Amino acid sequence: MGVMKQIFTILAISTILSSSAQERWTMEQCMSYAATHASSVVQARWDVASAIATGKQALGDFFPSISAQVGSQFSWGRNIDPETNTYNDVTTFNNGYGIYASLTLFDGGQTLNRYRQARNERKRYINAVEMTRDDSAIAAMMAYADAFYYQHSVRIAEDKLNQSEGMLTLIKTQEELGIKGAPDLAQAEATVANDRYLLVHQRNLYEQSMLKLKSCMNLPVEKPLAIDTSFSASPSLSPGESVEQIYSTAISTNPKALNAKMQVISTRYAYDVTKGQLMPSLSINAGISTSYFKNLSASYSPHSFGDQFRNNMGEYISATLSIPLYDGLNRISSKMKAKYTYEKAKENLSEEIRRLHDEISSAVLDREGYAIEIVSLKAKVEADAEAYRLNSRKYEEGLMSLIDLQLSANTYFSSRVELLQKQMLYLLKDKLVEYYKGNKIWM
Fold first, then answer.
1. Cβ–Cβ < 8 Å for 50, 124
2. Which of 107, 313, 341, 354 could form a disulfide with 290 if both were Cys (CB 3.0 to 4.6 A apart)?
3. End-to-end CA distance of the chain
4. What whole-number distance in Å separates Cα of residue 391 and Cα of residue 409?
């Protein structure tokens, strides 16, 4: 029995240690997971595969098209005798073979521009994968920041509840000794009830934020997820860093800006294709064919299959010049629509570049503002903590009312929450600035 008891004890300790040693995800790990497993990223990769197939199709248009044809025909009743070209009433069998090839020599640059467009689209879709990965990672970063904020808000709410419960215990003792009256006891009980509600509310917000984080990561809901609780936000700004310097880098590295540029190139090629449709096209054609014929109603034997196959063989080569004259204005309308799409893409590029500059300016200014606020808030939290400590002593000595003490406590805990909020906002803006500078913001 003693040995079994030791075994069960060891198993219990191992279980506790394994559960307590559960891996905690950092912000960078959550972002990396989202950038790999998000549904939008998987779909973007399939778009790349489709673009590669389109590129191969466009490349194949440069090569001649070759086809082979085999046909057989039974005829009975009134028909034409191919040997005498007269009508008869017999049953015949006709078998034909042919190989044909066609090559476009000039089509106004349509084939070339389609290939250029397909090649550019492949690059654009590859860039779109990176753009989607960035968007998924940033969404996970925002969700992680919310979860981290609410997690620490729960701890602050627990601290406040512990403080109010300790004060309630003290007042109950003082009320029994006749030092405090019923109003103080009622006020303390109301404070405890309110703090308990705030704790429950913060826990609900934390659970919702964790669900949102799993959704952004495309992580199954049933899979456990614990985030890293360690945190250090020490603002450090580069003195020589400016918005224009970051912008000059982002305009050539940011996936959204690159996507808008490549969209302009693609629409330009599409516009060139429609212009080529208004020009003449020149192609050459060549073929070789032969046939075999047998009169099933005749008493004589036809030439052998090999003789007819060689004797009936014919070749041809031709050139075709096609000049578009009128097709109901379809080509002209397509050209106009393609031009409008091209102009729209250029305008979208200008708007994307302007928006990128505004986002960088906002991120840099916000980061600098939060850094300054964090320094002030840290000093405020220390001052509020000291004021609350001194006010608690005054209350114990009967020199302060309970309501004033609770106001001091609320000020202290509110300062802690506000400092936490500004630290998280600073961290987010700092990572966004690094992202605009072209640096990797996740593992």
1. no
2. 313
3. 51
4. 9
Please give the Cα distance from 49 to 293 (Å, whole number). Answer: 49
The length of the chain, given as a count of residues: 443
pLDDT confidence bin for 222, thresholds 50/70/90 = confident
Backbone angles phi, psi at 249, to 5 degrees: -80, -45
What pLDDT does 238 receive?
A: 59
Residue 440 sits at φ, ψ, to 5 deg, of -75, 130
Average predicted confidence (pLDDT) for the chain: 87
Token code pair at residue 163 = 């403080």
Average pLDDT over every residue of 75-94: 74
Half-sphere exposure (Cβ direction) of 157: Cα atoms closer than 13 Å:
20
DSSP 289: E
Distance CA 225, CA 257 (A): 35
Residue carrying structure tokens 């673009």: 51
Three-state SS at 64:
coil
Q: Is the pTM higher than 0.70?
A: yes
CA distance 114 to 266: 9
Return phi, psi of residue 395, to 5°: -65, -40
Residue showing tokens 């004259």: 325
pLDDT band at 401 (very low <50, low <70, confident <90, very high): confident
Residue 247 CB: number of other CB atoms within 10 A?
21
Q: Encode pLDDT of 251-287 as tens digits.
A: 999 999 999 999 999 999 999 999 999 999 999 999 9
DSSP class of residue 25? B
The span from the CA of 193 to the CA of 181, in Å, is 19
287 close to 99: Cβ distance less than 8 angstroms: yes
Q: How many CB atoms lie within 10 A of CB 442?
A: 21
Task: Give Cβ neighbours of residue 185 (< 8 Å, ≥ 6 apart).
Answer: 168, 171, 172, 175
Cα distances (Å, whole numbers) of residue 194 to 45, 84, 200, 221: 51, 111, 10, 31
